[in-house]
């Protein structure tokens, strides 16, 4: 059984910016939740952001650039939330290291958790290829990050390692 970091909003917790959660209708996700040890986290909430909160997007890059200091996370009201997003990412990494977590299932498109796509910073609904701040930090530290749409890949990986 693996310990897996999972975005709280994927587990039904109403912690998203608008006070909602993300519905996941995926048998692979259900299998992971039922058979693995889940460590839930909303990095934005642990960083001190409220629920609900203003929508935020990465401006001027992707999560890697936010970590490097060359891009920012801005609220739709132009408030600079970079510090809070970095704090949430560091807390996620700390939790992974503390619990020897090697895998994470994080919410796609989020400026924190997006693993393959994030919004482009224009608040127009347009997406770009890239990772959010948490995903970028976890990947950099060798933690494999999946999202709710590709979680079947994680299931295969877990089943293969279990059979060895």
Task: Provide tags for this entry.
164 residues, alpha/beta, two-stranded antiparallel sheet, 6 helices
What features would you describe in this structure?
The protein is an alpha/beta fold and 164 residues long. The chain has helices spanning 27-35, 43-46, 63-68, 82-98, 133-140, 151-163, and strands at 3-7, 37-41, 56-59, 72-75, 103-106, 117-119, 127-129, 144-147. A hairpin with a 7-residue loop joins strand 6 and strand 7 (127-129).
What is the 3D shape? globular
β-strand percent reads 15-25%
| Fraction in helix | 25-40%
List the strand order in the largest sheet.
2-1-5-8
Q: CA-to-CA gap between the ends?
A: 13 Å
The number of helical segments is: 6
Nearest-integer average pLDDT = 96
Low-confidence stretches: none
Structural class: alpha/beta
Question: What series of H and E elements makes up the topology?
Answer: EHEHEHEHEEEHEH
Q: What does the largest sheet look like?
A: 4 strands, parallel
Radius of gyration: 15 Å
Regarding quaternary structure, what we see is single chain
Total strands: the figure is 8
